[in-house]
Amino acid sequence: MAAGSSTSVEGARLKHAVLVGAGRMGSAMARGWIQDLGAAGVGRLSVVERAPTEDVIEASEDKLIVLNPPPEPADILVLAIKPQNFTGAVEGLKAWVSPQTLVVSIMAGVTIARISSALGCEKVARAMPNTPGAIGMGATAFALSPACSDAESVATGHLLEPLGLVIGPLKEEQMDAVTAVSGSGPAYVFLLVEALAAAGRSAGLGEATALTLARETIVGAGALLGNSSESPADLRKAVTSPNGTTAAALDVLMSAGGMPDLMRKAVDAAVRRGQELSREAEKK
């Protein structure tokens, strides 16, 4: 399902959702839910966080959420903790889980089987957001355990929508590729800005000028892509005059061993590392 889905939750029982971990991603989801709990299918929101941010504390004081309540089985348990902290948190998390609890995880590399076995639950959604989700402009994909029905798929989509675009359900074996493309993807874009600015300095621009031009070019190109119905290839061709300066640069970038080949190698490396991390997590 895509973000902005009009799938209605009207008439459905509003659920008690518990968010464990209110860092950047967890807080972004919570902010979106608070704006319209009903649209997210949530009637009561609890947040479990040892070091809550000021906005989480303020939401608690305003009675919009319940901060660190005594544990009880929840309808939905959202795990927004660091994956390396999962093993140590398992015993405490079990108190929030019943056989009917939908567990939604945004922990990278932690498989559905691992979560299900550790918490004794069958309904599990594994999601991979990315950092632009912190401003509601992210891309998130999710996979579901076999015990999940269409109802869990819809509920997961609504819960993730505050982060931006939502795609799913996908097959779980595709999640390492999702991580490599969209999860890690913002870092590739930031590196592109760094590299473009460095090339600008090499060509004679001052440091501040080169960085500003590179940064705003990437921001503007992304906005144009987001607001255009044309494909990335068509937009690229529209900028490229035959035998012009852009064509000369693209001849280098698109040559053998250039950007397409490098990006493929980079994504393959990220996929392999994601698979390794999953295997390592299974051993803990």
Task: Tag the structure with descriptive keywords.
alpha/beta, Rossmann fold, ProC C-terminal domain-like fold, 8-stranded mixed β-sheet, 8 strands, disordered N terminus
Written account of the structure:
This protein is of the alpha/beta class and 284 residues long. The protein has two domains: 15-170, 3-Layer(aba) Sandwich (Rossmann fold), CATH 3.40.50; 185-274, ProC C-terminal domain-like fold (Orthogonal Bundle), CATH 1.10.3730. 48% of the residues lie in helices and 15% in strands. It contains eleven helices and eight strands. Strand 2, helix 2 (54-61) and strand 3 (66-67) form a beta-alpha-beta unit. The longest helix has 24 residues, at 259-282. The relative contact order is 0.11. Mean pLDDT is 91; it is low at 1-11.
Secondary structure topology:
Blueprint: E1 15-20, H1 24-35, E2 42-48, H2 54-61, E3 66-67, E4 76-79, H3 86-93, E5 102-105, H4 112-119, E6 123-128, E7 138-144, H5 150-160, E8 164-170, H6 175-183, H7 185-202, H8 207-226, H9 232-239, H10 245-253, H11 259-282
Parallel strand pairs: 1-2, 1-4, 2-3, 4-5, 5-6, 7-8
Antiparallel strand pairs: 6-7
Produce a short descriptive summary:
With 284 residues, the protein is of the alpha/beta class. The protein has helices spanning 24-35, 54-61, 86-93, 112-119, 150-160, 175-183, 185-202, 207-226, 232-239, 245-253, 259-282, and strands spanning 15-20, 42-48, 66-67, 76-79, 102-105, 123-128, 138-144, 164-170.
